[in-house]
Structure formats: C-alpha cells, structure tokens
Amino acid sequence: MGGCRLFGISETWPVEHGFKLEVRAQPGRPARTAQVALRFGEVTIKRPGNCSDPAARPQLVLRLVEVRELDAAVEEPIHWRLLTTHEVTTVAQALQIVGWYRERWHIEQLFRTSKSQGLDIESSQVEAAEALFKLAAIAMIAATKIMQLVLARDGTVDRPATDVVAAEQLPMLEALQVRFEGKTVKQKNPHATHSIAWLSWIIARLGGWTGYASERPPGPITMRRGWYRFQQMHQGWNLRNVCTP
Question: What confidence tens digit (pLDDT) does each residue in 30-84 have?
Fold first, then answer.
C-alpha cells in the first residue's frame, strides 16, 4: 500500500542485523561463507486489479524478511525475500523465518526421494483415493527414514540407530558391518556402534558407496538403494532364524 512496490519497500528499511551464512557447494560453485544483512518489517499488499476471486480481501497484511549478501563481487549473491504470516518484530523471530526457509532443501530432498528418483511413487497404478493416501503415507515414512540416514552420515547427529531400525535388526547390521569393513582404518566404520551414523555407513555401503572419504558422500538415491537391499536381506535373515532349529 502507499504506492510502493513490494520488494522495493525493504530498501528503505534499516539493517537490523548482520550475520554469516554457510552456503552449500553447487555444480560450478564452491561452498563459501556469506556475510549478509537482515531487514524485516510489515507490509500491506493490495489485491490485484485482475484478481479472479471477487470475494478476496481488498488487502492482506504480511511480514517481509529480507536477507541480502553484502559481497557484490559474488556472481550470484544471496538475496532472499521471505513473506510470512508469522509475527516478526524481533531479530530472533526474523532469524527463525530464515532458518525455516533454509530447511527447504531437506524438504525438496524428501519429496525427491519419494518420487521418480527414489521410491517412484508416481508410477503407482493405484486409482482409489483412500488407497493412494495410504500408499503416500507409507512412502513418506520410508523417505523420512532415508533422509534421516543422509543427514546422519557425517556423524553430527547424536541419535541411536533405533530411530530408524528396530532393536532386533541390530545383530544383522553388526554382521553386515563385519562383511563390509576392510583391514585398514580407512575401510572401517568410524562411528559409534548402534548410533544412527553407524547405521548410515552400513546402509550406504549396501547402496554401493565405497566408504572412502575421497568419494562423494552418499545421497538419497544411494541410501534408497541400500535401504531396499537391507529390507530384502532382513526378510532372509528372519527366515533363517525361523527355520534354524
């Protein structure tokens, strides 16, 4: 409102906070630490003249959080403009919005894992809505477990393996570790036994990862392959135990 354009209004706001962001590496762009400026404020958005909903409110009050990188020499500097219905009146609240936005990559990876590059739920022949909802719920549970393993691969998550697998599956995993570990230190599972990072290492090995630090870290697709193999092997493990007198 007031005749200003939405993304131009933040230019008139003062910088409320400066901080550093760790920017992930991308193809053709190395990882870096970005120095950014934080601005935020309330905006009132006018209903567009060509709005298709005649019952829409004439205006909408939102909060705008802007994060802009200060280094203009960077080829593609960070410039995020985040609109939210959450209250943003303090730096802490604005940083919370930024933190939520930064989690979008994990959300995208979760859906990627459940779709064509992972569990391939899109190829399902299920037509009934109720059955499709159940299938989607099952797929999301599996995709969530796979993403838990991906996020734990570096050993920075202090959680037990039983967050993802049942306690009775641990003996089989111990046997798999013996199979995959080599004689040198580089070929050993470096994580605490029965931790989620320990589990992630084993599932990644099942998915085709070599285990060497020089190789690219295992991603969702590798973990999905490993998880699928693990589930198949566990069925055989159970059958062996049932049939063994």
Answer: 888 999 999 999 999 988 888 888 888 889 999 999 999 997 777 888 999 999 9
The closest of 148, 181, 145 to 173, measured between CA atoms, is 181
Is residue 123 classed as helix, strand or coil in its secondary structure? helix
The pTM (predicted TM-score) of the whole model is 0.64
The DSSP 8-state label assigned to residue 226 in this structure reads H
How many other β-carbons are positioned within 10 Å of the β-carbon of residue 19? 13
180 membership: H or E segment, kind and range? helix 170-180
CB 45, CB 59: distance < 8 Å:
yes
Using alpha carbons only, what angle is made at residue 65 by residues 157 and 95, rounded to the nearest 5 degrees?
Answer: 30
How far is 244 from 237, CA to CA, in rounded Å? 11
Sign for the pseudo-dihedral over CA of 182, 183, 185, 190 = positive
Two tokens, residue 61: 């009050």
Give the position of tokens 């055989």: 236
Q: Please give the Cα distance from 175 to 152 (Å, whole number).
A: 21
Helix axes 220-243, 170-180, angle to 10 degrees: 110
Q: What's the token pair of residue 123? A: 């190829």
Residue partners of 169: CB distance under 8 A and separation at least 6: 234
234: which 2 tokens? 């566990």
Residues paired with 79 in a beta bridge: 68
The candidate with the shortest Cα–Cα distance to 146, out of 77, 79, 204, is: 204
CB 200 within 8 A of CB 149: yes
Nearest alpha-carbon partner for 220 in 82, 106, 118 = 118
